[in-house]
Amino acid sequence: VGPLFQTPDEVARQAIENDVHAVGVSTQAAGHKTLVPKLIEALKAQGGGDVVVVCGGVIPVQDYPFLRERGVANVFGPGTQIPKAAREVLQSIRDRHA
Amino acid sequence: MKPPRAPADYVAGVRAGDRRVIAKTITLLESRRADHRELGQEVLDALVPFTGRAVRVGITGPPGVGKSSFIETLGLSLVSAGKKLAVLAIDPSSPVSGGSILGDKTRMERLAREPAAYIRPTPSGGTLGGVAHRTREAMLVCEAADFDVVIVETVGVGQSEVEVHSMVDLFAVLLQPGAGDELQGIKKGVLELADVLVVNKADGEQKAAAERTRVDHAHALALLHPGGGAWTPRVLTASAHTGEGIDEFWKLVQEHRAALESSGELARRRRGQARAWLWRLLDDGLQAAFRSDARVAARLSELEREVEASAVSAPRAARALLDLFAQSRATRRR
Lengths: 98, 334
What we know:
The complex is a heterodimer of chains A (98) and B (334). Chain A contains 4 helices and 3 strands. Chain A is globular and about 30 Å long. Chain A has 98 residues and is an alpha/beta fold. Chain B has 334 residues and is an alpha/beta fold. Helices cover 56% and strands 13% of the residues of chain B. Chain B has helices at 7-15, 19-30, 34-47, 67-80, 104-107, 109-112, 128-144, 160-165, 182-185, 188-193, 207-224, 246-262, 265-291, 294-308, 314-333, and strands at 55-61, 85-91, 117-123, 149-155, 170-175, 196-199, 234-237. In chain B, strands 3-2-4-1-5-6-7 form a 7-stranded parallel beta sheet, sandwiched between helices.
């Protein structure tokens, strides 16, 4: 759990300080195409390349490939089933640590 | 980049102040996996010579008293004075789901952004003794990483503050203004442990009430502590909101440290804490060995039932079980 408004660098730092397995980005404001890649870069720069990044919220389907190419493990749009999403996130974490 | 794997890598990373390695090391020590714990212990052993230099402060208080805000304001002031600060927050786990919210980062938003501050919530995970061990270990890791101040935060609603008191140099209890009734709420025992009482939220309309609360508690403390020790507990008012009283609090922390150092009490206290920790670990280890012993296990539930039914007295049952335990130890040695 993090504060509501943070820069990608701050998110990356807190993810690392708390040694998390995954960061979930909830995005509603169309910033995902710039902020999410920046977050992934920041994680790599701070030595957290093994942290899984997933996204959810209001993201147009045509942006999914863009996000995946940049290292987002899973994207969950409106109407996602929560148990299914949870399983997929766990699988992504397992894959990353295999 | 893969995280380091060898104990020496962890030790070097912690000593260099690498956040990622500090976080990984604390995770190892928190882990319930035997191999993680073993590796963690090995790292901790190597770090122990570098520990003991930080100022260890425990902060507790009832929910809603403003602990996180107080720590944030204090922390920002320490960081601006050039200190490196670690905050270890014990987060109560839900007894139902076992989960924790670990929400401290949302409550210490500004401090969380400071590069010289490291905030780590620890889920209490059900067992209080367990938290105490893990928090103490995390504190040692932070000290080895050259943090100047380590603050241990706990919610003041139970046994956890006794545990925290047993690992810090100065123990501060936060109160609300007008908290006359709250004296009932927090146990008197917790007040007895306090080196400093802080009446928080002394701002705006509550300022006068806070001052009255301060005076009330000063009287109460005078009765609790007739004096003569190296340190007489003090009460002050503060406001995390306006920042008033925060510097005074830190001055008291330094005064307290000077008093304890010059009287030799600090070293004595830390020796006592180290010995008490050893005994806690011995108690836990002995109990685990006792419970996992085959001969004991064969008789344990039966004797428990007989004690419940008053068929056998508890001392007699205990003696019988301890004899069984001693026997199986003796046969194993042969």
